[in-house]
Amino acid sequence: MTEYWVSQGNKWCDFCKIFISNNPFSIRTHELGKRHKDNVTKRLATMQKDSEAKDKEQQQAARALQQIEAKAKKSYQKDLENNQKNVDGDTSAAPGDGCGWVLDSTTGYYYDNSTGLYYDSNSGFYYSDGLGKWVTQEEAYKSVKASQTDVGQSSTSQTKAPATDTAAPAIKGGPAPGRVVTKPLNPMRPMKGATSAATANKRKREESKPSKPKVISKEEEAALKAREAARKRVEDREKPLMGLYRSY
Asked: Which residues of 14-46 are buried (b: 16+ CB within 10 A; e: fewer)?
């Protein structure tokens, strides 16, 4: 019987990156060699190092996630407390003793009817209709004092009574219990509930200006006539479709 020769091929060693003969003796000899053992040791050390680095990275990510969740929970609890205070009408954040300040639910600001000032508990600024902008506490009270002095002088001059004391009445309220801004940062923040006096005067001046007759050129007059004729034609064409007139 005839025997055929069959090639056994080669075997690839992934640790040493070489080909060896694919027979038990060659494989055994290569695995017992110093080069193969050193490569296996290096591979295991590299795998262990990578595993430790991966575990460390996962621990850091988990720690950062816990910190973020703790901060978010703390902020959420603070928002709930502030919301509950606004719903219950808490005046602890109002400036002064809180006697003349009332929380306006529409704008979210505190309003003092005696002085006409708005107070923002978040920024510590005051809003005055006379100034038309957000200012510090000192500037707001100066504006109120000046306006009250002007009102007192005008009423005295109209009645012609002897002026005994032109000093402005004492302003109710006191210093804010929380943060108070002393430097004017000039935040141009719009106000929902109050309209600036400067804006109202400007609007009145614009409305009081007489309107000048507009000069129309011949080309514009012809264009207006053509537009009016086209509109009339379209209207005549669409009258039967709207059911307003009978087409027969």
From this structure: ebbeeebeeeeeeeeebeeeeebeebeeeeeee
Quote the CA–CA distance of 98 and 178 in Å, as a whole number.
13
Q: Residues in the chain, how many? A: 248
Amino acid (1-letter code) at residue 110: Y
Q: Are 67 and 95 in contact (CB under 8 A)?
A: no
* Other residues' Cβ atoms within 10 Å of the Cβ of residue 144: 21
Amino acid type, 13 = C
- For tokens 């004017």, name the residue: 184
Question: What is the token pair recorded at 246?
Answer: 């009978």
> What sections of the chain are H helices per DSSP?
24-31, 34-88, 137-159, 197-208, 218-238
Neighbouring residues of 179: CB distance < 8 A, sequence distance ≥ 6: 124
Whether the Cβ atoms of residue 191 and residue 135 lie closer than 8 Å to each other: no
**Is residue 117 within 8 Å of 142, Cβ to Cβ?**
no
Six-digit token pair at 93? 């954040």
- pLDDT (tens digit per residue) in 221-245: 999 999 999 999 988 888 777 655 5
pLDDT in tens, 54-100: 999 999 999 999 999 999 999 998 888 877 776 555 444 556 545 57
